[in-house]
Amino acid sequence: MDSVRVRFAPSPTGYLHVGGGRTALFNWLYARHHRGTFILRIEDTDRTRSTEEAIEQIFASLRWLGLDWDEVYRQTDRFDRHREVGEDLRNRGAAYEEGGALWFRVPREGATTVRDLLAGDVTVQHSELKDFVILRSDGTPVYNFACVVDDHDMGITHVIRGAEHLNNTPKQILLYQALGWEPPLFAHVPLILGPDRSKLSKRHGAGSVLDYDRRGILPEALVNFLARLGWSHGDQEVFSKEELVALFDLPGVNTSAAVFDDAKLLWLNHEWLRRTDPHRLADLLAERIVTLGVADRHAVEAVGRERLARAAVLLRERGKTLVEMAERARPYLPGPIPLPPEAAEVLTPAVGPALAALAERVTALGDPSPAGFEALLKGGAEDLGVPIKALAPAVRVAVTGSRVGPGLYDLLSVVGPEVVADRLRAAARWIKERR
User: Fold this and answer.
1) Which of 20, 61, 311, 380 has CB 3.0 to 4.6 Å from 209, enough for a Cys bridge?
2) pLDDT tens column, 71-105
């Protein structure tokens, strides 16, 4: 195969949607798999709707996904070249001016066949097409024309894009033929549908690529999810980016529409949270805790990276997103824990004195490991005459404000003796004040 050159060509008229993210990913994977070139081309010819903010958002989205590009272009920098080619078509008799705009003359007879690598042959009769504008009256090119000129000049070998562009392809092939250029190979990827099989939209929970960052989705998880939206390799579900580069090719792309499944995305994210290095997870969690206002940066720094990494390991067992993990991280941070009224179900007058006495033992604990805390609680229950099945739930609620969570002794070890002791004393006072 000649050196592969593919492009992702977004229009910067809004955020980068997940559908565009998948198109970018498929092009990037194809280029990396074949050791080719991945080009980012900003198609900003619609100057009334294109914005610099949208362009920066596209860059940020691709960087977050980890999709690097080898070359980058903006169509507005190539207007002179588009006009030059338009004039060439006029001189060939393939274009004419009307109303100040330059129109392409569609042949009246015959048909054009798109030989699509995924959809197969698609034939359109020329009688079904009308002449179309290639240069507006202000001299700016329209999409179908600029796309052809740029793909030719940039040596694009494969155009991998969404199926919604298939209707444009016969017009583009006619332009290639009129200019005497060899068209690239085309592969139109089937649409992404919502769970109700309608066109994917925000009402299905699908937003911009960066919305998923805000939701607490890891980029590895979204890349994995987008790759599986229309591509498969046996029964495997979880893929690293390195595996995707090694395995991805067009024959593995499905020819039927893919269905967006948010539950599947959350499952994949949970899998990737569990595979992520705890220290990296601690860094991500620290930022999310501050962003969400769970605690300030000073409190997070007081915990330390090592302890926060241990907390992250416990939090990711139940949390499916970084947001869920951050919202449940308060017990691991310094400071008091508010106790809800229902805490009275386990924080009874019978355990109050035992919690106060246990606090003193925790302060003197020489082994703050999970095993050390287990020995302390079981020994304390026996010495203080309180059944462990009553003391353990009371300790959990006193320390976390909740009756559910990870293993109690692991939790206490991560929170640490000083904070545990303070919260046990506070719970003992809370019980006393409610009498």
Assistant:
1) 61
2) 999 999 999 999 999 999 999 999 999 999 999 99
Domain ranges of the chain: 5-69+192-266, 76-189, 276-332, 341-433
Residue 111 DSSP SS3: strand
Contact 276, 299 (CB under 8 A): no
Among residues 130, 171, 199, 202, which one is catalytic?
202
Same fold, 5-69+192-266 and 76-189: yes
Are 329 and 318 spatial neighbours (Cβ–Cβ below 8 Å)?
Answer: no
Distance of CA 27 to the CA centre of its chain: 17
At the second CATH level, the architecture of 76-189 is 3-Layer(aba) Sandwich (3.40)
CB atoms within 10 A of CB 189: 27
Give the separation between CA 68 and CA 74, rounded to whole angstroms.
17
| 104-124 per-position pLDDT tens digit | 999 999 999 999 999 999 999
Task: Name the class of domain 5-69+192-266.
Answer: alpha beta
User: Whole-model pTM?
Assistant: 0.93
Per-residue pLDDT of 190-220, as tens digits, reads 999 988 888 887 666 668 999 999 999 999 9
Q: What is the CATH number of domain 341-433?
A: 1.10.10.350
For 91, the 3-state DSSP assignment is: helix
119 with 188: CB under 8 angstroms?
yes
- Is 202 one of the annotated active-site residues of the chain? yes
Pairing assessment for the beta strands 101-104 and 37-42 based on DSSP bridges: unpaired
